[in-house]
Known about the structure:
It is a single chain. This protein is α+β, with helices and mostly antiparallel strands and 159 residues long. It has helices at residues 27-32, 77-98, 146-157, and strands at residues 5-7, 12-15, 40-43, 47-51, 61-65, 102-106, 122-127. The chain has one domain (5-157): HIT family, subunit A (2-Layer Sandwich). It contains 3 helices and 7 strands, in the order ββαβββαββα. The structure holds adenosine monophosphate.
Amino acid sequence: MQPNVWCLACCSRLASTRPPDPVMPSIFTRILAGQVSGQFVFRDDLWAALLDIRPVSPGHALLIPLYETQYLADLPAPTLAALGDRLARLVRAVKTASNADAVNVVINDGPAAGQEVPHAHLHAFARFPEDGKRMAWPATPYAGGDLNIWADRLRAAWR
Ligand code: AMP
């Protein structure tokens, strides 16, 4: 699917092969464009980090690409190439500012995964021992030869 392409300076559509999407521009694009207020931690020409208004723990930050697309894998190569550096620096900042033992990094990549804002982003929030915040979902061992089957499927899908 061809993602929408937005100019964040003027927040207008530059190119799209599909009709306007009523949920675009996202709230994050409007914050990045200065139309809605946000508490920025940092910003460069590819990525910005801002505080989540409903934090899991104080200092919960969102790492958001300036390029607007819903899914992480649809981001342009330069944006993806810079992700590791920006994420590591954000994790370090959250940890240092919170004096935290640990940090969860979470991405909800699509509505079925819990994505509310259809603009790719990563969450980073501080964790402490016995903080009562559980990120638990049911996990079960593979049956029979399913481990091998799924490894083959993913290798075949790798590109
Ligand atoms: P997700 O469910 O992964 O799409 O997460 C979206 C996050 O965006 C939620 O944690 C919201 O609290 C956060 N959020 C929504 N609107 C704003 C806003 N105006 N400023 C900062 N964070 C926001």
